[in-house]
Amino acid sequence: MTETGSLLGAERKAILAHRTVWRWHFYAGLFCIPFVIILSLTGAAYLFKPQVEAILDRPYDGLVVEGGPQSAQAQVEAALAAGPEGSRLRLYEVRPHPEDAARITLSTPDGPLIAFVHPETHVVLSLQREADRPMEVIKTIHGELLMGERGSLLVELAAGWAVVMILTGLVLWFPRGGRGPGGVLWPRLGLGGRLAWRDLHAVTGFWISGLALFLLLSGLPWTTVWNDAFKEVRKATGTLAASQEWSPGRKSELVDGHPIHRALARSPAEGAGPTTVSLDRMVASVRLMDLPPPVLIAPPARGEGWRSSPVWTVRSETANRPQRVVLTLDPASGQVTDAETFADKHPIDQAIGYGIAAHEGQLFGLANQLLGLVAASGLVLLSVSGTIMWRRRGPLGVLGAPERLANPNAARAVGVAILALGVFMPVLGASLVLVALVEFLVLRRIPRVRSWLGLDPIR
């Protein structure tokens, strides 16, 4: 074969490989783009949860207090009296300032209820279902699309296909043929039309790909199937912690409460017995510890098994997880009897803790939030620009998938890479098997559907 022939052959193989990757990129984007937009918008909003909740709760902070020390126990009793029948104390939050309304979380038949109680008069200023708080609603949309467990599985599936979309997009972006930096590192918007949209799409994808992949992968611990499989692997390797600080899916949070609620859920303090010091004594002790807020106190528990505990439990529930600490206090003296810090956790739990804190925008302050906002905005821009390019390119009467060109080696290599991702993300893997079966058994056998989707006929 001549040198010219070898070059032409290499170029043809590169084109065929490019087309194979493009088809995977197209189908992955077609499925996950609607979910990516929803998750990006809700995720961007949730990044600023501390600021938003500080504004929403401002009417309950810095209240006029003229008297002396207030009774935390009396605040709890006022909250219980205002709550529905069957309410029980779940958590008491130690506020940074004595002039702030007390935040008392009650266990009720309809789920956790937060009571805002005036610190001096003990008037209940507001009763709010935890699940109805604006940031909790956004979190529920982000985690399960308001569809319960089925929505959680859809989010997990969309995350898997979004990873495929980003990785194949990086392969398509990779410069070939001695191209300059224009259209690679910055978009050539002056070209106008489809080329400008292509540059905007490709360059944006390159710059945000690392952040986007991090957000997708650091969100896996919240998913249902991946988290269950991960726990089984840790159980088999002897690295599974006694309890984890994150919930697999919103259902477990809303039914059993936030992870802190499940860990600290307690019966009313008055049932703890005469040897237990008062809640007021515990609040006074905790204020001196200067723990990162919010700081939650749970009184001694009554019950059987894990629900029975003679000690008070105090926990810093700061969103910056590496700063969290859990303390147990002696019920008779109020002294600390045990402490667990982030450094005491298994390295795997520490790594996940760092990832979750960064995912939520709380690991290194405002800069973390802004990086998350850049990633979310970039994903929305990718979704919009990709949709516009598809609609401008797609011929009438068909889906507009890139034409399949015969290249067994490229198809095999890409297929193996996608299957490897499917093993790492089981829901993605299951969808690959399902799609392959439906395509072979049904879609390819219906001429009009086959033509519209751009599939090959059965040979």
Q: Give me the number of helical elements.
A: 15
Tell me how many strands there are: 8
Whole-number mean pLDDT: 85
Q: What global shape is seen?
A: elongated
The gyration radius over C-alpha positions equals 27 Å
- Helix share bin: 40-55%
**Biggest pleated sheet:** 8 strands, antiparallel
Q: Which ranges are low-confidence, i.e. pLDDT below 50, for 5 or more consecutive residues? A: 3-9, 256-275, 303-308
- What gap, in angstroms, lies between the N and C termini? 32 Å
Beta content comes to: 5-15%
Order of helices and strands: HHHEEEEHHHHHHHEEEEHHHHH
Content-based structural category: alpha+beta
Side by side, the strands of the main sheet go 4-3-2-1-5-6-7-8
Structure, described:
The protein has 459 residues and is an alpha+beta fold. It is 53% helix and 10% strand. A hairpin with a 7-residue loop joins strand 1 and strand 2. Helix 13 crosses helix 14. It is elongated, with a radius of gyration of 27 Å. The chain starts with a helix and ends in a 6-residue tail after the last helix. The N terminus is likely disordered.
